[in-house]
Specification:
Blueprint lengths: L1 H6 L29 H31 L3 H7 L3
Amino acid sequence: GAAVAAQTQQTKNPTVWLTEWAPEPQDVYWKNLSIPFVELTIRRLIMAVALFFLVFFFMIPITAVQSLANLDSISRTVPF
């Protein structure tokens, strides 16, 4: 399976897909591939809080621009 996939031409242009053999399992430093549960939970919490604040603070200018979006409000605010 894997040997055949590594040696097969996958597109008409052979430089588009380059495959390599996987390293031997004893050559992989497995501790680098895992993230501790506590650290993963903290990362998720930080990202959720950052997303909330980004969305919240982007809504203020979007709301202000949207309130001026109809032509009557724009012509009253900034006469051309």
